[in-house]
Amino acid sequence: xxxxxxxxxxxxxxxxxxxxRSSVLWVLIVGIVMAFLLGAGLGANDVSNTFGTSVGxxxxxIIQAYILASIFISLGAVLVGWSxxxxxxxxxxxxxxxxxxxxxxxxxxxALLGGTAGWLAITTALRxxxxxxxxxxxxxxxxxxxxxxxxxxxxxxxxxxxxxxFLSPALSGLISGVLYLIVxxxxxRRNHPFECGLRALPAFYFFxxxxxxxxxxxxxxxxxxxxxxxxxxxxxxxxxxxxxxxxIVQFLVKPRLWRxxxxxxxRYEENVKRDWLLS
Length: 279
Hints:
transmembrane; disordered N terminus; about 80% helix; transport; phosphate transport; Phosphate transporter family protein; phosphate transmembrane transporter activity
């Protein structure tokens, strides 16, 4: 829906053939319906992929996962998603090809929403996890090839997107492997992994929160003027917020976790002291 509305605005204002609202209102209404169906498909397929590890490991319940996903996916779309929206809006398709006939571009955008929503519905029914981004790019490429042929596609952007499809799993696998080795050596292989994990918890929170805040503040949303923040300013903000969260974890979360473990096993502390003496 965001891609569709952004495209309508840009084309209607810059096109040599002005659009009458009454003649395209039905396109907007159909686009909104398709966008909601696409959002439902995204939630049923893409978002559910992330539930597997968190809910399956028992870290959160399914209801908590729903609540957290609703909050943070919305925040991610508002704070970080603008660049992806901009790429899909005018990076894949050469919008200048439609200056003489903007209605074609609007219909193409509605078609890609419907095509992607339909594909997600099929794959979800078949219990196949797929990427909504891949489906959106493919649908955009498809309608542009039909309407304008190869001239209507920004192929440099397409090549860059396709390259990211191969680099993303390779880099994410490498990073996750390195992180697992760090946790394995620093925590899991220790004589008392729970205590080591508690000691390392603030550091993990610091790095995770700092990195996420840096993603939001550095070259961030133009609407919120985050793009005006220099790198050093974004780094200071990230480190500051990460440090505050780490202190909260150190002095509030860790004692609570320790009390919870002791409540589950009243003799836990006694067993730990005995193990320390025997080791």
